[in-house]
Amino acid sequence: MTEPLPLEITHVHKKFKTGFLSLRTAVAVTDLSLQLHTNEIVGLLGPNGAGKTTTLKMVTGLIFPSSGQVRLYDQPVDRRAARARMGFLPENPYFYDYLTAEEFLQMACGLADMPLAGRGVRVTEMLKKLGIHHARALPMRKFSKGMLQRAGLAAALIHDPDLVILDEPLSGLDPIGRRDFREIILDLKRAGKTVLFSSHILPDVEDLCDRVAIIVKGRLREEGSLADLLEHGTRNTDIEVHCPHGQGEVLAREFPSLDRAETLSGFRLGVPVGTGLQGVLRRLLELDFEIQSVRPHRISLEDLFVAHAQAAGPREEPGSPEGPSPGSRSGGEEVAP
Amino acid sequence: MMRPVLAVVLNTYREVVRNKILYAILFYAVLLVLTGHFFADVSLNQERRILFDVGLGLISLFAVVLCLFAGTSIIYKEIEKKTIFLIVPRAISRGQFLLGKWGGLFLAMAVIITAMFLILLLQVWFLKLHPEVALLKGVLLVYLEVALLIAVALFFSSFSSPVITGMLTIGFFVIGRLLPDLKQILFTKYQADAFRTVAEELLQVLPHFYLYVPSGHDFNGHTLSLTTDFVTWAYVGWAFLYTLLMCALILIIAAGVFRRRDLA
Lengths: 337, 264
Prior knowledge:
Largest sheet of chain B: none
CATH class of the domain at 7-85 and 162-231 in chain A: Alpha Beta
Structural class of chain B: mainly alpha
CATH superfamily of the domain at 7-85 and 162-231 in chain A: P-loop containing nucleotide triphosphate hydrolases
Largest sheet of chain A: 6 strands, mixed
Strand content of chain A: 25-35%
Helix content of chain B: over 70%
Order of helices and strands of chain A: EEEHEEHEHHHEHEHEEHEHEEHEHE
CATH architecture of the domain at 7-85 and 162-231 in chain A: 3-Layer(aba) Sandwich
Oligomer: heterodimer
Shape of chain B: globular
Number of strands of chain A: 15
Number of helices of chain A: 11
Number of helices of chain B: 10
Structural class of chain A: alpha/beta
Strand order of the largest sheet of chain A: 6-7-8-3-9-10
Shape of chain A: elongated
Radius of gyration of chain A: 24 Å
Distance between the termini of chain A: 47 Å
Helix content of chain A: 25-40%
């Protein structure tokens, strides 16, 4: 018998009632489908207000889809048994100020239905792993943002979940914290776990993810392995030429179809693959331009991300970093009631 | 299955007792001592009755006020401060979460009521007065009253803001205390028609808070008093059963309402 998928999102829509008497509707997520397979790390990308956090809230059972289904290990997300196999770190986690880190993790053990015996050992282990053991007896209101993030991750992982959902786990961390978190995420993969995390720190996503899903304005724009997504991207060859004053017009006349961008000392010409790179170089030399560099340009995740964001139209007013919420229009297309 | 509930109980208890709410006990002690001294001078050998009545009355008053203070914002704060994001995604149902909140708040209130009751007994001992078992029955009724009041507050806070919750809870509490009078008014002012029938049925399903402050006469015509003739143990037992059933019913309805609420 095959293991059920850790996460299956099927044609999910989410609308929020907004405005006076809740007569208006803000669409936060539209027809989103996504599957996570066992032992992969998937990055959920999107600009602010794209619907990432709304999606993760539906995945964790905090809010409910207006239509469509979210299933964890082949069970609806509102089943306790389904959520028992999941660990969740919310964005900018909030804590009970009056608890110490140790008490908080003890509570997390209880919420995860862990037996009393062995809780203490597990709590100590996680406090040490996350580097906050020294502050275990300190009330959490005295924690720095990075320490809170570490405590949140410790709570998410305390019951050794099979599926880990992390909402912007690397934001607000210093470089050492980011390195530690990256290492922990990779450890989870080595241990056979499945990880879904949202981020807009693209280098981290490129470093960690097997697959990415790009959401813009509540719609899934692209999804696949990084290698596949970047392979599909067009490739240019960038030629940087030194260009004395007034010679820019010559370039414009000679190469009207090429992308031109002005640099400090001249211009950068973008020559698409298969459009006669050698001919362009030869002509530049004939015209006596000094060629400074010739570099193949492979599309990056950032290029892909920006391209999707731009293709979706002008950016709306950014709302809360958590994306659209009742009373907020950010990230959602406003539709008539 | 109960471990997640117990985790919420313990956390809610900690939240309440680590708040400034425990100062209420100190305030109660001061008030009680002052009351004892004041009425000892002016009550012409009635200080025992007055101390019992005032002592227990203050326990009930403090418990109700603290309950309203802590209970009306207990769910709202979890959502507003987003601490609920750390709880709901776990192996706990929303109904269990509400049960845990009810249990934690009741535990905290029970500790506070017990502390106040011990202070009352100390005062009784200090003034060399003879304690009555009626005091114990009276304080047990306060525990039950608080249990029901917390359930009502939790029900309203499962779908409304603290202000609305506070107003509705106080409204239900006052109506519940005045139910016999309201029934009497209904009986004397209106004829037996459909309106009266509906109104009577409606009053019947509202929480009967008057049960916890027995006064006047019982069904046998005995005057109820903490010093002479108070309610029977059977009365306390029935009140316990009523409270248990009502709390269960209210929490089940609250869980049904809270189950589909978006916690955005």
